[in-house]
Backbone:
């Protein structure tokens, strides 16, 4: 607990990060409880199409007469969920690969790092597009595709951390005690290697949200769900007459991604205090 | 001789990457539900089981998987990427046709982004913690968080629909018979919005990178020496520090090529720019798997080659790296 308080005290010094955290919490709360406070079905055609913002429809209606504010709230759930789970998946893959490569070294390291570099080279967005096109767009295939293309940076970082730790005295002590490699890697090194990884994977959430929005803009999205990128894609058809329609969900993405980036940087400063003077 | 050897060794390093891309493509092809025989059969109005089996035999799809892989590999190595059954043309032709437009767009975006990013980064570092640094950093943060395709749409609204300064899509005015210099101008005016859209994110990225890199170089001894000799602060910043802060930015340009290709797909879709991205979008709409995989293959090769080029440029810019 004191660890967390200490962390918060250092995090608090970065004003931008605190502001980002505040707005991010607002967005998360809106995604969780918004549908209760604003009980309009985002999938229901309730008004005339393409109406500008008014008292009845605070942000107007889209091309099929669906309420945009309700879509925004529903989209927050989809976009945040995909972003979170995809980055969690990428973190699990990345840490596993990086831990094995860094801890085992030698032959494992060569093969796994070649694999990582390989995935870093292929144009990730193109690969994601092809994967989703092959397995048909659904919330699962989109999430998996994003995770599959975003793990390499995590793997590299985790490898560096594990390499730096594996010959420390405490690890040697564990070996002398007869602990298994698995136990040393997961229970002893992991807690020490994790802080920088957490920073990177929290920033991955932002990238994942951006990737998801791009994919659903191309139509690669679950046909039964509304996400922010999908709303931009829909609004695009009436860009000339109703520019606010694609503008609104785009601003939602921008603010969310900005907040996550600010919080991520704040966490980075809080976790690595020595680098803070920059 | 030694130089030639090192070039040859680097060339050799791309072989595993190319092989890896081939394996990946082959795996994806076989994970897809339905094979080429099904597609062709469906297009010719469906057929009985015997007809599909016949097709499968003629495509060699009844052979063992490893044999199929070597046949596939052989085809890839001779740049035979298969046939697009939707567009009724070889995949390679379709792709080659579109590469110049994408390269033009990406090159413009890279050059503009690198130059602007370096200049802004230098200024921000030289005005460290002053208001100008703050303004540049805030703009960079915003640009960093903006979805590119959305930015493109908003630029179209502002500059084409409202102000009418730039065309909203395409690469050139159709059926305008222009002399060559006006033709170049025509393409340039079509290029402005897409390249700004694609480049802005990288301006932000390179600005932040250049700033951090400059701030690090500022702590080195040779900067202190230069200052002690009485070299002006402007000269120290722009000449002494900038030259040494460049390399991380250059590395990033190489690393980001694949990322930029992804951005290019979205930007080309927004602006109807007739490049690889637009082709990918069409292939997606028509469920043209051969073409999709062909684009993945060629764009991966493109990234590998660019990285190789950046690697070699490294040795030229920083002789210490040449070994």
Residues:
């Amino acid at each position: 607990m004191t660890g967390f308080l200490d962390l918060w005290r250092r995090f608090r010094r970065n004003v931008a990060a605190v502001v980002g955290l505040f707005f991010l919490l607002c967005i998360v709360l809106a995604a969780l409880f918004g549908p209760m406070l604003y009980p309009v079905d985002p999938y229901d055609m309730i008004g005339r199409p393409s109406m500008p913002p008014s008292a009845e429809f605070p942000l107007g209606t889209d091309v099929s007469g669906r309420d945009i504010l309700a879509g925004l709230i529903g989209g927050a759930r989809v976009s945040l969920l995909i972003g979170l789970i995809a980055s969690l998946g990428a973190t699990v893959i990345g840490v596993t690969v990086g831990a094995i490569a860094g801890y085992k070294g030698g032959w494992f390291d060569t093969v796994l790092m070649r694999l990582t570099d390989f995935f870093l080279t292929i144009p990730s967005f193109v690969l994601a597009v092809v994967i989703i096109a092959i397995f048909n767009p659904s919330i699962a295939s989109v999430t998996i595709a994003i995770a599959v293309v975003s793990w390499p940076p995590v793997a590299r970082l985790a490898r560096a951390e594990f390499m730096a730790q594996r010959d420390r005295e405490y690890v040697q002590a564990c070996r002398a005690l007869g602990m298994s490699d698995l136990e040393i890697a997961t229970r002893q090194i992991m807690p020490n290697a994790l802080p920088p990884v957490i920073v990177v994977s929290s920033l991955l959430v932002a990238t994942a949200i951006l990737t998801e929005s791009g994919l659903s803009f191309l139509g690669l999205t679950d046909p039964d769900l509304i996400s922010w990128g999908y709303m931009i894609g829909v609004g695009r058809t009436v860009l000339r007459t109703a520019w606010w329609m694609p503008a609104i969900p785009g601003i939602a993405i921008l603010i969310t991604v900005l907040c996550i980036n600010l919080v991520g940087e704040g966490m980075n400063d809080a976790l690595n205090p020595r680098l803070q003077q920059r | 001789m030694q130089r030639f050897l090192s070039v040859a060794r680097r060339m050799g390093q791309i072989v595993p990457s190319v092989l890896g891309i081939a394996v990946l493509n082959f795996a994806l092809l076989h994970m897809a539900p339905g094979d080429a025989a099904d597609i062709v059969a469906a297009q010719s109005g469906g057929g009985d089981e015997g007809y599909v089996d016949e097709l499968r035999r003629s495509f060699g799809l009844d052979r063992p998987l490893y044999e199929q892989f070597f046949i596939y590999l052989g085809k890839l190595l001779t740049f035979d990427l298969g046939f697009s059954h939707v567009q009724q043309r070889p995949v390679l032709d379709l792709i080659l046709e579109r590469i110049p437009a994408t390269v033009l767009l990406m090159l413009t975006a890279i050059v503009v982004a690198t130059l602007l990013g370096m200049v802004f980064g230098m200024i921000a570092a030289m005005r460290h913690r002053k208001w100008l640094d703050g303004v540049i950093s805030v703009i960079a943060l915003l640009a960093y968080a903006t979805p590119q395709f959305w930015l493109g749409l908003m630029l179209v609204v502002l500059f084409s629909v409202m102000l009418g300064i730039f065309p909203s899509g395409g690469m050139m005015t159709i059926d305008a018979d222009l002399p060559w210099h006006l033709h170049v101008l025509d393409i340039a005016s079509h290029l402005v919005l897409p390249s700004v859209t694609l480049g802005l994110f990288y301006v932000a990225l390179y600005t932040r990178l250049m700033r951090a890199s400059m701030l690090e170089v500022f702590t080195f001894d040779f900067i202190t020496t230069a200052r002690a000799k009485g070299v002006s602060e402007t000269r120290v910043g722009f000449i002494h520090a900038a030259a040494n802060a460049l390399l991380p930015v250059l590395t990033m340009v190489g690393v980001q090529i694949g990322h930029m290709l992804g951005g290019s797909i979205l930007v080309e879709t927004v602006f109807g720019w007739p490049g690889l991205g637009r082709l990918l979008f069409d292939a997606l709409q028509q469920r043209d798997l051969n073409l999709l995989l062909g684009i993945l293959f060629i764009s991966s090769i493109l990234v590998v080659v660019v990285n190789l080029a950046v690697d070699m440029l490294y040795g030229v810019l920083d002789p210490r790296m040449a070994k």
Chain B touches chain A through 51 residues (CB under 8 Å). The mean pLDDT of chain B is 80. The first strand of chain B starts at residue 83 and ends at 84. Chain B has two domains: 21-91, 99-285.
